[in-house]
Amino acid sequence: MISNDRAMPPPPHAELRIDGDTTYLTTADSDGMMVSLIQSNYRGMGSGLVPDGLGFMLQDRAELFSLQSGHPNVYAPGRRPFQTIIPAFALREGQPWLSFGVMGGDMQPQGHVQIIVNLIDYDMDLQAAGDAARYRFYGGAEPTGDEPDGVGYVSMENGVPPEVRAELERRGHRIRPADGSFGGYQAIMRHPNGVYEAATEMRKDGSAGGY
To answer: How many CB atoms are closer than 10 A to CB 205?
Structure first.
């Protein structure tokens, strides 16, 4: 359904949320075990419930359920609310290769694609793949009821060349200035010889370390 020639409205039920605060981390050990983890309380401070003696708050992403009969995200037995908690992990030739994440609501899947493209198609190293200029799409439907805004908007960081912006506008995309909401990236890559490489985000707090 993706067109390279013209801008198009979001497909049906492309509902995503962009509000909330999220933490992503990844870790790996000398035996090759790699973990990709993302945590988000969602709106405000989550559910407001703290398990006795544990010191962390439970999330409230069940807010994204709908009580409308026939809705694709209707509350029902065995269902989970549609959300954007997407810790990413990639294999290469069937072996663990990349444990990574890009935080930020619906920036998560958009950012993951951009990282993989930078690594594979542009042969960037792990840090450069995260530092490269990003883009973000706005204007799709929301599970809370917001309707799509035509073909939406594309926000781009300043590193995207002006000729790229002009060509996208020629194809019908609506471009708007960068707003700083381009996610937060962390990653660990495992090389075939077992050596790890780590990278962290320059746009927000983050760290990469090894011992």
So the answer is: 8
| Residues whose CB falls within 8 Å of the CB of residue 182, separated by 6 or more in sequence, listed in order | 104, 107, 111, 134, 136, 157, 203
Q: What's the whole-number average pLDDT of the chain?
A: 87
- Residue 114's φ and ψ, nearest 5 degrees, are -65, -40
143 Cβ contact list (under 8 Å, min separation 6): 15, 16, 17, 64, 66, 73, 81, 82
pLDDT digits (tens, 9 = 90+) for 147-178: 677 888 999 999 999 999 999 999 999 999 88
Q: Would you say 18 and 8 are in contact if contact means Cβ atoms under 8 Å apart?
A: no
108-121 confidence digits (pLDDT tens): 999 999 999 999 99
Domain ranges of the chain: 21-131+183-200
CATH class, range 21-131+183-200: alpha beta
Residues taking part in catalysis: 22
DSSP-based three-state secondary structure for 206: coil
Cβ-proximal residues to 195 (8 Å cutoff; 6+ apart), any chain: none
Dihedral, CA of residue 125, residue 126, residue 128 and residue 133, to nearest 10: 130
User: For residue 19, what pLDDT band results from cuts at 50, 70 and 90?
Assistant: very low
pLDDT in tens, 9-18: 876 655 444 4
Whole-number Å distance between alpha carbons of 193 and 191: 5
